[in-house]
Structures are given as structure tokens and as C-alpha cells.
Amino acid sequence: MAKAHSPLLRTFGKRWLKPLTLAVLLAPLVYLCADWISAVNGGPHDLGFNPIQTTHHFLGETAIRVLLATLAVSPLRDITGWAPLALVRRRIGLAAFFYALLHLLVYVGLDLQWSMPDLIKDVVKRTYITFGMAALVLMLPLALTSTNGMIRRLGHKTWDRVHWLIFPLAILALIHHFFAEKGLQPGPVIHAAILILLLGWRLARWGLARLRPEPVAAS
Asked: What is the pLDDT of residue 215?
């Protein structure tokens, strides 16, 4: 297997990683649009007997999977030593916000017919929607500050603190998914296991760093 610092991987990371990542991130949306086009034209599709609900769930699950992929970038970079992975982290994070926003728009626009009173009522009365809206609200500052200009304005230290919000919002998103499903379904369980693994890796790494002795300054 090629090493992470090989010329081939460096070239791939420089020229192809970003466009390939974009193509993979857009693939679920392309698939969903193709499914709708086929359904509207009377062709075969996977939207089931309730296409709106299927679309709503598909976008929500895609948002969670892309969010987990965002959290997986740092561990994969550190384990493989392939630095170019860090170049696509913000792109993946923005895609997670994009799918979460589409998930909300389908719910509000097609399920609730843009009724704000109904939306407020659902947020207050339905626990899983409360968690989902809380996660989306926490995603907003991350999306709004995911540009090089905002990093310069905030400074790296402040920017890093803002983007720590990804951890509580990921937990809220998983709780939303768990309560949205009826009964104990494999999807939320698998996603939760992945999140626990990713958070556990970070905690272990942080703990090991704390245990390392401080370097002795030269006299």
C-alpha cells in the first residue's frame, strides 16, 4: 500500500481530492432528484407510498452521515498521516448543513405547508423536533464562519472555539434521529456507535496528550 506521503498521493490530494469529494457529497442529491424525475414520469422509483416522508427521512439521514464524515476527517488524517484530508473538512461540514437545511425545508414546506404556527407547535410539543431544531441552530454559526475570511476575522483560536459546537450538535442530531424512528432501529444505533467511536478517539488522544511530560527548557 502506498504511503501517505508518496508523490502519487500528494498529486491526488492537490488535484483530485476536492472535486472527488464534491462529487461524492452531491451524489445523494442527484440520486434523490433522479428518483423524483422517474416517479413524476411514471417510471420506477424508491420513494414508496409516501414520497414526501421518504424524501424528508432520506435528507435527514444523509445530513447525519455527512456530519459523521466531517468528524471522521481528523482521526483519518492523524492515523494515515495524509494532510490533504484537512483540506476537505470544511467542504464536508457545509454539505452536512446543506442537507440538514433541505431536510428542514421539506418538512416545513411540504409537510406543514409553510405554517409557522404549526412549526412552533411541533418544536414545543414534539421532543425529537426540539432536538433537531437545536442541532440545526448550532450548525448555523459553523456554516457562517466556514470561510477563510471569517477565520482571519475571528482568529484561529476563536474560530476553533466556535467550531467545537460540532460535538454537542452531533449529539443532538443523533438524539433527534433516535426519537424520530419508531422503535429501536439499526440506523440510529449504527450512527450512535460511530459517533461514540469518534468522540472516544478524541478523548483518548486528549488524555494521552495530558499525560505526556512537559518538555524541559534548555538552560
From this structure: 57
